[in-house]
Amino acid sequence: MSAASKLTGEAALKQAEALLSSAGARARLARGRIVVTLEPADLVETAARLRDDEKLSFTYLSFVSGVDYPDRMEAVYILRSLEHQQLLELRVRLDRDRPSLPTVSGIWSTAAWHEREAYDLLGIVFEGHPDLRRILTRGEDGVFPLRKDARPHRVQRDEWSFAGIGAAKRLPGEEDRSERS
Amino acid sequence: MAESRDILMPPAIGRSPDPYADEHRDFHLEEMVLNMGPQHPSTHGVLRLVLHLDGELIVSVDPQLGYLHRGFEKLAENRTYLQFFSMLARLDYLAGFFMEWAYVRAIEDLMQIEPPPRAEYLRVICGELNRIISHHMAIGDYLLNLGAVTPVLWAFRDREDVLDLLEMLTGQRMMYNFARVGGVRYDLPDGFAEQCRRFLKGFPAKIDEYEQLISGNEIFLARSLGMGVITPGQAADFGLSGPNLRATGVAMDLRRHAPYSVYPKLDFDIPVGKNGDSFDRYKCRIEELRQSVRIIEQALDAMPGGPVNMKVPPMLRPPAGEAFCAVETGRGEWSNYLVSDGSLRPHRLKLRDSCFVAISTLPKILPGFKIADVVGITGSLDLIMGAVDR
Fold first, then answer.
1. For residue range B121-155, what is the model confidence (pLDDT) as tens digits?
2. Which of A79, A88, A80, A94 has the alpha carbon at shortest distance from A41?
3. Of A91, B6, B151, B386, which residue is least crowded by CB atoms under 10 Å?
4. A10/chain B closest Cα distance in angstroms
């Protein structure tokens, strides 16, 4: 890991752009890391290229997770290149109603558990996953807790207001949160 | 009738009975499922391992998590940035400052502010003191798992000195609440530097004592050398970090390879192992104790004057965006992925923990070892369930 092997951000971005196959994929630099936006269909191929490319060698997957936006869901992958000290964020845009994308557990073994967690908390289905079970919650009610519209099951049944229990009061200058999602 | 008489016949003289012979086919040999935990004392919390055994040998392992799942990520979405702050040290409750550090760095990254230099040095001092107590527990508890009681008592005795220092600095022994967006809560109290230097002067001799007690012990060597071996390739594939990764020989430390705070200005070595077994993991932690002493000494010497925090709005409202910030804790990479929508509360906060990843390697490294080594190998990985289950 000598200083000579360290790529600059721009050079790494250029190299990453060269690896993207389809027209839908985009790469940019933001806050010191490369952010790549992809379609689900291109994920596995691009991920394998990013790992195997000698100039980038993103061999280390930090985590797989997701974010529930009001209009979409996004799967997020953070990759690290230990050799070249680069950070890369893969973002895959998903349909919020039926979020699914192929697994990358064949590329990084660590993805298997992170994908289980993302499935457990957000309901993202990873196709081809060897063992897609819940991991942190028991999921008896089919609730994916980190979705913005998730409600605790007891509250849902009794039609109590969620705002009075788990969520905090409205703060001055804050919009009404009960309207959201 | 004739058959059953055959079975009752004594074996011929000079021939030992063959347990696999047809006549003994009612003597079943089959895989046994053994449930270990969640209340097992060696699981450092509430980890449950479902072990499939062939006699004494492990065939496969299925770790079950979630017994300490408190929904931190969801709770963060329902609180303001500052309200969530005091919960962070409850994640990895043995070295809570790292969680606070990563969280404030993510917010500072979004808000584009940089804390004053004195605050960065104070964060480094507090962080390295946390690393020392974290490794104290790691080494002491690991040896306790192997049946040695003295090391954990010694570790707790010396850990108390560090906790005293942290109490002086932050007002708390474990749940610090010390980092602030734009700095830290307090400046150094009177007498802290002297007491800290006194501790740092005496501590290396104590590390030597640990080594004299543990490193050459035959029972320890028999139970740690060659146990739970992880190759560098497997470690990268599984995303291991921290001492567990460095024990395999990969010199990766975020303090050096994704530099943050004032670590680039400080001189320290990255200890690496060779074989990636339990012994190397233990040895890496021992060496890191020495490096932490060096770092704190330098930080105390080089610390500039000036303020330790800066004015930030009482209601934080970071601009919309996504921040990713990682710190090197005693256990490896702890990182936050913080999504702000410009409101008073985080839109999403993903907490990434290195012990979660370390547990995911167990199904790979445990099979083939004896059941008595399960506690040894899991202990050498230094797991903390509060951070795993979140």
1. 999 999 999 999 999 989 998 998 888 888 899 99
2. A94
3. B6
4. 17
Q: Has residue B260 got a pLDDT over 50? A: yes
Q: CB–CB of A168 and B80 under 8 A?
A: yes
Whose tokens are 């060496």? That residue is: B287
Taking the CA of residue B217 and the nearest CA in chain A, the distance in Å comes to: 35
Q: State how far the Cα of A16 lies from the Cα of A112, in Å rounded to an integer.
A: 24
Stretch among A126-140, B289-303, B357-371 having the lowest mean pLDDT: A126-140
Check residue B297 and give its pLDDT.
92
User: B110 with B312: CB under 8 angstroms?
Assistant: no
Per-residue DSSP letter, A67: E
Contacts of A167 in chain B (CB under 8 A): 78
Q: Specify whether the CB–CB gap between B151 and B140 falls below 8 A.
A: yes
Where do the structural domains in chain B lie, given as residue ranges?
2-64, 72-389
Q: Does A78 reach chain B within 8 Å, measured CB to CB?
A: yes
Residue of chain B with shortest Cα separation from A65: B350
Distance (Å, whole) CA B261 – CA B267: 14
Euclidean distance between CA atoms A35 and A91, whole angstroms: 7
Q: pLDDT tens digits, residue range B162-218?
A: 999 999 999 888 888 898 898 898 888 988 999 999 999 999 999 998 988 888 888
Length of chain A: 181
Chain A residues whose beta carbon lies within 8 Å of the beta carbon of residue B357: 110, 113
Residues of B in contact with A110 (CB under 8 A): 237-239, 357, 360
With contact defined as beta carbons under 8 Å apart, do B66 and A135 qualify?
Answer: yes
In angstroms, the CA A129 to CA A110 distance is 12
Q: Which amino acid is at B94?
A: L
Q: What is the CATH number of domain A3-152?
A: 3.30.460.80
How high is the ipTM of this complex? 0.82
- Topology at the third CATH level for domain B72-389: Cytochrome-c3 Hydrogenase; chain B (1.10.645)
Give the side-chain half-sphere CA count within 13 A for B256: 17
Give domain limits for chain A.
3-152
Q: How far, in Å, CA of B17 to CA of B24, rounded?
A: 9
Contacts of A82 in chain B (CB under 8 A): 236, 250, 252, 257
Please state the rounded mean pLDDT for residues A27-32: 80
Q: Cα-flanking dihedrals φ and ψ of residue B125, to 5°? A: -60, -50
Q: Which two tokens stand for residue B112?
A: 């584009």
- Asked if residues A79 and A90 have their Cβ atoms less than 8 Å apart, the reply is yes
Distance CA A150, CA A147 (A): 5
What is the average per-residue pLDDT within A45-53? Answer: 85
pLDDT for residue B22? 64
Q: For residues A100 and A124, is the Cβ–Cβ distance under 8 A?
A: yes
